[in-house]
Amino acid sequence: MSTAVVQEYLIAGALLLVAASATAAALARDPVRQAVLLAVLGLCLTVLFTFLQAPDVALSQLAVGTAVTPLLILLTVRKVRRSTASRHDGDERGQEGGDES
Amino acid sequence: MSRSARIRLFWATAVVFAAVYTLACTGLPHFGTAVHPYGTRAVATSLRQRTANVVSSVNFDQRALDTLGEESILFASVLGTLVLLRRARDERVGPPQAGRVLPSTRLLGLVMVPITLLTGVYIVAHGQLSPGGGFQGGVILATGLHMAYVAADYRVLKRIRPLAVLDLADALGAGAFVALGFAGLIAGGAYLQNVLPLGTFGQLSSGGLVPLLNAAVGVEVGSGIIVLLASFLDQAVEVRPARNSGSGGGT
Amino acid sequence: MTMLPFLAAGWIFLAGVYGMVTSRDIIHAVGCLAVTQSSTYVLLLTVGYRRGGIAPYFTDTPLRTRTVDPVVQALALTDVVVGATVTALLLALAIQIRKRHGTVDPDALTGLKG
């Protein structure tokens, strides 16, 4: 019985972490910062799903939420910023393609 | 709609939603309730079908048709992304720059790539016994391959990634799921009915159709996500807009 | 504790929608959509939790053990992976919008063009 109570406290703690990181990810204005916060959210969700006895979902959330989705967002940001940089800075910079991002 | 009007509308809707949602939550069974009629029936059915992983049994046996739908969404969105990100006529391709990597990172990557790929295959193959299956294992296979990008650079990744084969594998995985469903019809049952020999409970070959569907989904998800990431990497690293590209142009 | 998990799911949903409504960048809006989506996983899995239940695998546990609800787990599991590919589709649309219209600010996209 006591293990079930401990389990529920763990779930409540993980839930608060998830809610906090989700709020932070939604409020972050810069997509790069948001991608990092989404990875944190993915990690918190993984912990929550493990406590909720759902290792299957935790496994896919770990791979998708912490790696694939943030990576896709970062690549999109890089693509969008690079074409902005080459458009504004003229041709000679465009050749190299803004490699600062 | 203007920006401020949109935000005001959001707050009005959010207040109503919060009130109604909270009211609805009071009517739900309590968190951690002992009564789960569907869950109990799913567990009983899964044990009858000799599948130790009940989640896999629900996904690939009891609700296999729903998974076929999910898998079609996956296939369609991979296809749509490839079409959207194909190289346009007014874009040039520049050679990617070689990255510099610490020797220790390179060594770690060299060790980790085969281990991660092996873990992915293990998770796909044991989907009917332990946590895992085609969806999770496929993603692990895809991300494991990209460790080569972290450890070495883009050119190494391109060399170990046969995109034409993976495009085909993605379609074959999706097709295999559909084709395996016909086994039920041939045996005189329903579409996607689990008619194969069920095997011994707890063995790798148990569950009938479940491991085969898992393998099909694993191939599809793995190759699909590699192809997706490849087209995004291609856009971000290689493709540049042409010098005199349409709107705006240089200053 | 009887309602807290469901309310947390509602909070995550509203936070994600707020982010989308106030967004000035389509890529940012797609990220917020991912947050909104995660609220459904939280709701599904907390509805399926059973006090004292173990994960629904019978590899080395007695067949009479009490488990949590596997049906909602199966629902969430496929959606996590499928959701990632749909996110990729939306991001590909964002790249196309940037190429054709030269902006990723949804407010600057007035009317159809081309």
UniProtKB/TrEMBL annotation, chain A:
Region called Disordered, residue ranges: 81-101
UniProt keyword terms in alphabetical order: Cell membrane, Membrane, Transmembrane, Transmembrane helix
Membrane topology: Multi-pass membrane protein
Residues annotated as transmembrane: 6-28, 35-52, 58-77
Biased amino acid composition, Basic and acidic residues: 86-101
InterPro entries with a match to the protein in the record: MrpA_C/MbhD (IPR025383), Nuo/plastoQ_OxRdtase_6_NuoJ (IPR042106)
Compartments, as annotated in UniProt: Cell membrane
UniProt keyword annotation of Membrane present: yes
One Pfam family in the UniProt entry: MbhD
Gene3D superfamilies: NADH-ubiquinone/plastoquinone oxidoreductase chain 6, subunit NuoJ
Coiled-coil features, chain-numbered ranges: none
Top-level division of the source organism's lineage: Bacteria
Residues in MrpA C-terminal/MbhD domain copies: 16-82
GO-annotated cellular components: plasma membrane
Name of the protein in its database record: MrpA C-terminal/MbhD domain-containing protein
TrEMBL record, chain B:
Domain Na+/H+ antiporter MnhB subunit-related protein span(s) in chain numbering: 110-226
UniProt keyword terms in alphabetical order: Cell membrane, Membrane, Transmembrane, Transmembrane helix
GO cellular component: plasma membrane
Compartment list: Cell membrane
Transmembrane segments: 68-86, 107-125, 137-156, 168-192, 212-233
Pfam family for this entry, one: MnhB
InterPro entries the UniProt entry points to: CPA3_antiporter_subunitB, MnhB
Membrane topology: Multi-pass membrane protein
Main location: membrane
Family membership: Belongs to the CPA3 antiporters (TC 2.A.63) subunit B family.
PANTHER family: NA(+)/H(+) ANTIPORTER SUBUNIT B, NA(+)_H(+) ANTIPORTER SUBUNIT B
Protein name: Sodium:proton antiporter
Automatic annotation (TrEMBL), chain C:
Subcellular location(s) of the protein: Cell membrane
Superkingdom classification of source: Bacteria
Membrane-spanning intervals of the chain: 71-95
One of the record's GO cellular component terms: plasma membrane
One Pfam family here: Oxidored_q2
InterPro entries xref list: CPA3_antiporter_subunitC, NUOK/Mnh_C1-like
Membrane topology note: Multi-pass membrane protein
Keyword tags: Cell membrane, Membrane, Transmembrane, Transmembrane helix
UniProt-listed Gene3D superfamilies: 1.10.287.3510
Family listed: Belongs to the CPA3 antiporters (TC 2.A.63) subunit C family.
Protein name from the UniProt record: Dehydrogenase
Organism per entry: Streptomyces monashensis
